[in-house]
Amino acid sequence: MNTKLFQLALDRLEPSDWAHFEKLSSAFLLPEFSTLRTMAHPSGDGGRDSELFSPDGMPLIAAQYSVAANWKSKVRQTAKRIAKECPNIRILVYMTNRVIGGQADALKGEILKEGLSLDIRDRNWFLERADSDSQRENASCELIDRIARPYLVGESIINKSGSPLSTNEARAALVYLGLQWQDDATDKGLTKLSFDALVRAALRHTTSEKRMTRKAVHDAVSATLPSADVPTITRFTNSALDRLTKRFIRHWKKEDEFCLTSDEHQRILSRLSEVAIQQSEFSATIGNYCEDCLRDIEAGNDKDREDLQERVPRIMDKLLLRRGESFVTAVMSDQLDRVDYGQLDDIILADIHTHPPQSSIMSLYPQLASTIIRAVFAGPNQSIQPYLRRQAASYTLFSFLKQTPDVQSATRKLFSHGTIWIDTSVILPVFAEQLEEDEAIRRLSRLLLTCRDHGVELRITSGVIQEVNAHMNNAISCSNHAKWQGRIPYLYSQHIQTGRPSPEFGRWISLFRGSARPDDDLAQYLAETFGIIRQDLDDAQDQVGEELRWAVDRLWGEAHQVRRSNTYQSDESTTRLLIKHDIEMYLGVIALRKKEAVSELGYRHWLLTLDTIAWMIRDKLKEEFKSNAPTSPLMSMSYLFDSIAFGSDLRSASRARELTLPLILDVEMSESAPHDFIDIADSVRKEHEGLPEYVVRRKVRDAIDRARHRGGLS
To answer: Which candidate, 527, 572, 583, 512, places its Cα nearest to that of 550?
Structure first.
């Protein structure tokens, strides 16, 4: 029995499938309780779906089967009816297809006070026992045949609502590209990977009785990529057919017809069931975020939650498609750009225009959707990361194929070995990530470690280290002042949002530096932990022409004056120092490239930044210098991520780690938190004084999360 298919069957159960779940539950209980007598029917049965009799004929145990989404409400209703109509019952066995686990602990205590012991048997309970005996296995297989297989054959996964792709073949190709991306070995080129996926998608309905001719396969693949060169498509398709024949495909040579093998059909069904489960879990996660954002909006209701739960994934798919197209455009045109939340706002507004919500809070929908999506990308929820990574990779591969069938050749010029110079906008979030006890949540840290482990040289200037040290000093001062004026320093704001008490901040900073030689301490920490080496660019920047130096100095100066105008602690000397450091890195990397006569994407030296000002200056330099503008030294975070994923060298070297890297967008992270967050943290700590520290931290985090969601709607 295929456990993944059984899991999908349980996940896809609807209220109309109640009888199928009742039959399954009875079969799973019979090995334990041979005296079980089923009394269930949809209209109700005195609070019981099944009843177990004691030897003397008095019922002490009742079992209820339910596919209700609101399981807490269902259990409470059942307990009340049992207390009224069957007071002898002491144990309620609640059987559900939902995942509950430890979420039921509080409810068990509540029900126990009424004299009823609650035994929850959720989806995991069924999965763990599906093959424990023949009776349970047969019941599981029957549910698979009734629920899971028809769902997969019906291609609901492929034709999910809201897909930005217009044709059925394109949507099927997207799903199979994602499967192939996750399944294939590291040494397979992207062109082979892509066409293996397209051929599998074309043959997905075939059997030995229902085969496809070679020409039909060619036509199906060509229909997926209508703008591609047909002879090239034919050549790559034939290569894929040859490669897959015998092990995954059967070939009738005389008729020149093909079909998937039976084993391959079953493997694909199992993988598609995993995709369906991930989609369901992703939708549930989005639903939770929607509930959190709507909780404090009085006019919001269940219809708004349902609308947003459908709308947000649709918007995210469009964002991931645009992200993939942007990366492919950069590779094909040698002009690098980034995907930020400005593009997200455009997509949200377009979606609301196309699908206007019928809601009294329609004016809040743009902020609601943006807040939820930002939370999804920035949040620590690791369960949805494989889904997001697969979707992002699928859209990027599909975007490549629309530009050129030979994906492997197109990606050969991607950055793979060289030197990345890291600025303060990246390094401060790296420090902030060390607050996270779970290393899986440290997104930037893992990305930099992946680069380091596979030959990429990481550099930082003394100026950036000085900025980090100054920021830490400022943050410590803020943590010691009850009436702080100005912006909350980023590192301290991140410390607060983890729920930690203010007095611990200084001790946490001491993990990275001492008081005697803090700059050297920070440089040593970065070198030993991430392989980031301190190296200055003062001499290199002098090699840049005077006209460019003056222009960059002026643009950075203007930008910093605007940025610092509302900063209480800012002064002219501090601002000039920051400008000096930014100019050193920007011009220094340009100078290092003077001996590199290659296209923009082929350079070895890059400046990795999340600073929006740096990208604005790049664009202004292009406007001022036109054809004489220097090639941009800037690298976006998403470009670095995709270079690891799709670059021929880094991809083969870091495949295992790449599959676990969280998706990153080009968003400036080092923003300060509102002053309210400090007040909230202090208030929650006073309210729960005396509780264990881990409980207090959790309550502080939850309170700040709620405030952040409200803040996104202000």
So the answer is: 583
Write down the residue that tokens 């109509």 correspond to: 85
pLDDT grade for 660, boundaries at 50, 70 and 90: low
Query: Using CA atoms, how far apart are residues 299 and 305, in angstroms rounded to an integer?
Result: 12
- Distance (Å, whole) CA 301 – CA 306: 9
> What are the angstrom distances between the C-alpha of 449 and each of 491, 508, 511, 524, 646?
21, 22, 19, 16, 17
Least confident of 8-22, 99-113, 406-420, 615-629: 406-420
Residue 53, pLDDT score: 42
Give the span between the Cα atoms of 281 and 389, in whole angstroms. 15
What is the Cα–Cα distance from 422 to 426, expressed in whole angstroms?
Answer: 6
Distance (Å, rounded) from C-alpha 105 to C-alpha 99? 13
What pTM was estimated for this model as a whole? 0.82
CB 309 within 8 A of CB 286: yes
Which residues are CB-neighbours of 688 under 8 A, at least 6 positions away? 695, 696, 699
Q: What is the pLDDT of residue 50?
A: 47
Would you report the helix, strand and coil content of the chain in percent, each value rounded to 5? 60, 5, 30
- Taking the C-alpha atoms of residue 460 and residue 536, their distance in angstroms, rounded to an integer, is 8
Q: How far apart are CA 317 and CA 315, in angstroms?
A: 5
CB–CB of 120/94 below 8 Å?
yes
Beta bridge partners of 52: 61
Is residue 467 within 8 Å of residue 424, measured between CB atoms?
A: yes
The most confident of the ranges 60-69, 346-355, 372-381, 433-442 is 346-355
